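Students often ask what a 'structure token' actually looks like in practice. Rather than answer in the abstract, let us consider IclR family transcriptional regulator, a protein of 260 residues. Its sequence is given first.
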Amino acid sequence: MSDNPQRSDDEKAGGIQVITRAAKILNVLGEQPNGMSLGEIAHAVDLPRSTVQRIVAALDSVQMIRIQGAGGVRLGPALLRLLSGVHTDVVDIARPNLQALSDATGETVSLARASGTQLAIVHYVVAEGELRVVPRLGLNLPLYSTSGGRALLALESDEDARTLVGEAYAAMTENTVKTLPELLAHLKEVRETGVSYDRGETLEGISTMAVAIDTVLGRFCISLLVPCTRFQKHEARYRAEILKCKEAMTREIGKITARD
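Now compare that with the structural description of the same chain:
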């Protein structure tokens, strides 16, 4: 134990500062897969080039980043290996919660993420009933029309959402959102209520309800997929159960983050 409490506090503060700066550098590199120069990184994180150089060298020594000549600083193999396991980790966490949601509602449940301008299903639980929705794993649907896609878009600013999906929307059904103002009105409602809806806008005869989870493992959405014939009748119960599922998922991922 240190004989100088002030020095110990200063060392802790310095350590936290270095971690914070390293995290900023990794975040910036994550947005530039083609790599950046030290000068570009320094400008992006608003730090002296010499400070960035020291942190980059330390991250390179543990393969968190890779340095390949001038202008070639990019994420390294150790970090990419960690990222490759993210979706598997989330599915492992989500599986019992998704099953509980399906059991409570009697409906099909999916877990999905954004993939460009599309919504990609990464896991689902199919309901036991005779009249049920059966999705395809890897099925890609537009972010602008799906409840899950709009739940994820609502995490962005209106301008970022517009940049991501544009202003021209192909009609999936006669109910599909047609204009940017109409889409932004949906996103405003999602931000206010926490729940997103697709009432036959993407697939004929199917209504969906979704919530987004914004976690250290990434952004995902949980959706209920329901035949339109019974969606409205049980909508309030579906809403209560999907919010309960979101809370449970967030709590589980929070525990893992705290333990790490």
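One point worth highlighting: The mean pLDDT is 84. Ask yourself how you might have guessed this from the sequence alone, and why that guess would often be unreliable.
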